[in-house]
Amino acid sequence: MADQQEASVTLPSDPVSVAAARRYVAEVLGDWGLPEDAETADTVRLIVSELATNSVQHTFGQSPTFTVDVRLEREEWLRVGVTDSHPRWPRRLPAAVQQDNGRGMVIIRWLAAEAGGRLSVSPTADGGKTVWIALPWPAGTPARTARGC
User: Mind listing the pLDDT tens digit of every residue in the chain (149 residues)?
Assistant: First the structure.
């Protein structure tokens, strides 16, 4: 087993790409040995959906693509990042704000914390950002080295 496994996909900033990102990450996790019905797999699929949706909706057409990176480090930490080239970083909304959307980062942060992980944002060289989540790899899940990743 390598110290780190990585996979990534770049998709157009289009609403149909959200489902493609979710499917891609589910396939990678399955290739790495995480059962599809594992709680961590469900959490990651939901987080990827929220991150990809944020990237598509909140870049206002200024980021033609987004990239999903998946990394498994020493069978200890699973890191998933969504990168776009828009310079605006995610913001927390005040709890008193009443609106139908804009709660994605609250959901992501809560899901990550609930799974024993964390959320972070880092700048990219082109002025964009990557929103990362890091989750513990489930104990007792031996990671497999996947072909073609």
Answer: 568 899 999 999 999 999 999 999 999 999 999 999 999 999 999 999 999 999 998 887 788 999 999 999 988 999 999 999 999 888 765 555 555 555 778 889 999 999 999 999 999 999 999 999 999 998 666 666 654 44
Amino acid at 109: R
Token pair of 52 as six digits: 């990809």
Q: What is the helix (H) or strand (E) element at residue 121, kind and residue range?
A: strand 118-123
Q: Which residue has the tokens 């469900």?
A: 42
The structure tokens listed for 38 are: 């594992």
Q: Which residues contact 80 (CB under 8 A, 6 or more apart)?
A: 25, 44, 47, 48, 51, 68, 69, 70, 71, 132, 133, 135
| Predicted TM-score (pTM) of this structure | 0.86
Show contacts of 26-32: CB within 8 Å, 24+ apart.
Answer: 28/70, 28/146, 28/149, 29/70, 29/78, 31/144, 31/146, 31/147, 31/149, 32/5, 32/72, 32/143, 32/144, 32/146, 32/149
